[in-house]
Specification:
297 residues, mainly alpha, 2 domains, disordered N terminus
């Protein structure tokens, strides 16, 4: 048994790091691993590993290896249905058979849309339910294992997949093929009539951008649930992906204040104002600093 000092957070077993570690140490180790992943050139970022680092934040018992094995098994199920020389269109048909028609990968219901598990890749692979971007990650990873050069496309309010010859696919729609008019319909369903589709929206979304979008989805979920520690963990990972964005410093300070860590909050918010002295929310942030400063601990 690992001894702990009075008042200290006890160490917990960690399957991935194979030794007892405190929750804070596990979170820091996971963040460092995530930072190493996203430091690669975008095309070399391991998307699944990055998504699993995100899923592991605040979950010290998460071992990423079973999820990678599930992706390997899915690609194997597709591979045995292929003949040598099958074109990408046939590979995609078989892939969609495995994922959507037989595997029943699908988006969540409206009632469960804001469940954090819909953005955690390990849970998506087990439950076979995920947000459009999560389903897209599964499709991308399986396709890449089969040698098909798919890429993500981040439409406003929705996420789809593009491929050879300009093919467009909606993973949240069971892998159905899309035309530009369909993309407009997806955007309208998510955001209303205020956003008009144009061809520039079909530009490939980089792997780093995909991970940032997953993180923003999770941040919204945790903020809505008023789970400040979980939201803080996600903001810290966002700061790894987007280190030059001072908004993450501000958000970190506000969350620290929500958690009663007022001295750290004042420091973060002070850094934010120093970096963005002309930001639109300078007055509001200054007022918050004044409140938190009176509660320093």
């Amino acid at each position: 048994m690992t001894a702990t000092t009075a008042g200290a957070t006890p160490a917990v077993p960690c399957r991935f790091y194979n030794r007892p570690m405190s929750p804070d140490a596990i979170r820091a180790a996971n963040r460092a691993r995530f930072a190493r992943l996203v430091a690669h050139p975008d095309s070399e970022i391991d998307l699944a590993e990055g998504a699993l680092c995100i899923a592991a934040d605040g979950r010290p018992d998460l071992d990423p290896r079973p999820s990678i094995e599930r992706l390997d098994r899915l690609s194997g199920l597709v591979r045995v249905r292929l003949d040598v020389g099958d074109p990408p269109t046939v590979v995609l048909q078989r892939l969609h058979d495995v994922l959507y028609r037989e595997g029943s990968f699908r988006p969540p219901t409206a009632a469960s849309f804001h469940d954090a598990r819909n953005s955690q890749l390990d849970q998506v692979l087990v439950r076979r339910i995920g947000l459009p971007i999560s389903l897209a990650i599964v499709e991308l990873e399986v396709a890449w294992r089969l040698g098909v050069a798919l890429h993500g496309i981040g439409l406003p309010g929705h996420f789809i997949v593009g491929g050879p010859g300009g093919v467009l696919v909606d993973p949240a729609g069971g892998g159905r093929a899309l035309r530009p008019d369909d993309c407009q319909a997806l955007i309208r369903r998510a955001l209303g009539d205020g956003v008009l589709f144009h061809s520039g929206m079909l530009r490939p979304t980089g792997r780093r951008q995909i991970l940032a979008r997953v993180l923003r989805n999770l941040r919204s979920v945790h903020l809505a649930a008023r789970d400040w520690p979980a939201a803080l963990g996600i903001v810290d990972l966002l700061a790894v992906v987007e280190p030059t964005d001072p908004d993450h410093v501000r958000d970190r300070g506000l969350l620290l204040g929500r958690m009663g860590r007022f001295t750290e909050a004042v420091t973060c918010l002070g850094h934010y104002l120093a970096e963005r002295p002309e930001a639109h929310d300078v007055t509001d942030v200054s007022q918050v600093i004044g409140i938190f400063a009176g509660r320093r601990n």
